[in-house]
Amino acid sequence: MNLPFSQNDLSHVVETDRAHVWHHLLQHKALETSDPRIIVEGKGMRVWDAAGREFLDAVSGGVWTVNVGYGRESIADAVRDQLIRMNYFAQSAGSIPGSLFAEKLIEKMPGLTRVYYSNSGSEANEKVFKMVRQISARHHKGRKNKILYRERDYHGTTIGALASAGQPERAALYGPFPEGFVQVPHCLEYRKQWDVENYGQRAADAIEEVILREGPDTVGLLCLEPITAGGGVIVPPEGYWERVQEICRKYDVLLHIDEVVCGLGRTGTWFGYQNYGVKPDFVTMAKGVASGYAAISCTVTTEAVFDLFKDDPADPLSYFRDISTFGGCASGPAAALENMRIIEDEQLLNNTLVMGDRLMANLEALKEKHAVVGDVRGKGLFQGAELVADRKTKEPVDEKLAQRVVAEANAQGVIIGVTNRSLPGLNNTLCLSPALIATAEDIDRITDAIDVALTRVFG
């Protein structure tokens, strides 16, 4: 690490941070007796903190975001050049990078045609909910307004997005929530609710049961993650997505795939849903769209959905009356264009598949070695290991022990994640999402650190 700051400068930053910054996802009482973590530099998959310590980042910026790694000068140059040329104009007008990125994005998403820009995954999902409510009001006499979401899935931090949170601890204390959001059962076969041979189809059938209970004429949208992320890295079982698609078509329910985590290569395909042959009506994305180099999110729709908002040009309420202020910031699509070029030119989708296979093999080896590892699952460079106190009963380990594993890996210079304040009693899954540039050496170092951490915590 070679920074243009003295140690006195960095000490001042730490104290100023402690005095004035309200961090995400932290209980600040703990910072009264310990220093806040200040990350001051990143390169590739490595980051350095204010104390000069180096870490291998196995979670892509902490929240599955920095897909192409740190220190990409070409993305920084693209953002700089665009900001000098034209930094911002409200999205009621267009921009060159906004137009060009939409074209490139749609090329990767057959069947979808329109891109609506905003600046976060939460906001992108809110746009879908608003669109569905407007479609209900204008085309279904207000009836098909209910939004179904899945247990253990997560769609953002706003009040509307939290109304669709299948993670009770995320939503706790923030109600009351808007009406019309209805939960459907999860599809984690490791903790299956039904003892049947074809669990995937049975889990999907449970969605149909909810639709029938609520009334098909009242249900407008089904919102799902292609692979559940913060709810425990849940890969849908065989037969699930085919049946989900069939149910949506049967009952005229629009299908919304939340790709905020899986999008832009995380699973080895451009989007997670493309692993399953699904044809969604809406796809939302953020995080890896620009790998964290600029704020951007996208709500992508079919032309059929788009056409529902231009049915009566003479009616002042017929169009989508929404704006996202920073959806007009041109740096986002400029960064996204270069981010996508890097993924293509460096063949990072293929690397994700190859390194994902290595990661899964290493996790399977840890499962063989450590009885506390009850299940390993995932796809590409998006994987998890669920820790249990007893393999036979599948009793979860105490979440404090899971957090100790994270701390022990951190002590070895490897940053890993864990489900956190999401599911009462089930915050027990280690989460791994290394950048798509990961090498075999990186993957082995990550799992070696977990191996040592599990030994230190559980013996």
From TrEMBL:
Ranges annotated as spanning the membrane: none
Gene3D superfamilies: Aspartate Aminotransferase, domain 1, Type I PLP-dependent aspartate aminotransferase-like (Major domain)
Record-linked Pfam families: Aminotran_3
Record key words, sorted: Aminotransferase, Pyridoxal phosphate, Pyruvate, Transferase
InterPro entries named among the record's database cross-references: Aminotrans_3, Aminotrans_3_PPA_site, PyrdxlP-dep_Trfase, PyrdxlP-dep_Trfase_major, PyrdxlP-dep_Trfase_small
Cofactors: pyridoxal 5'-phosphate
Source taxon at top rank: Bacteria
GO function term, MF aspect, one: pyridoxal phosphate binding
The keyword Transferase belongs to this UniProt entry's keyword annotation: yes
Keyword hit for Transferase: yes
Family: Belongs to the class-III pyridoxal-phosphate-dependent aminotransferase family.
Name listed for the protein in its UniProt record: Taurine--pyruvate aminotransferase
Native source species: Haematobacter massiliensis
Lineage of producing organism: Bacteria, Pseudomonadati, Pseudomonadota, Alphaproteobacteria, Rhodobacterales
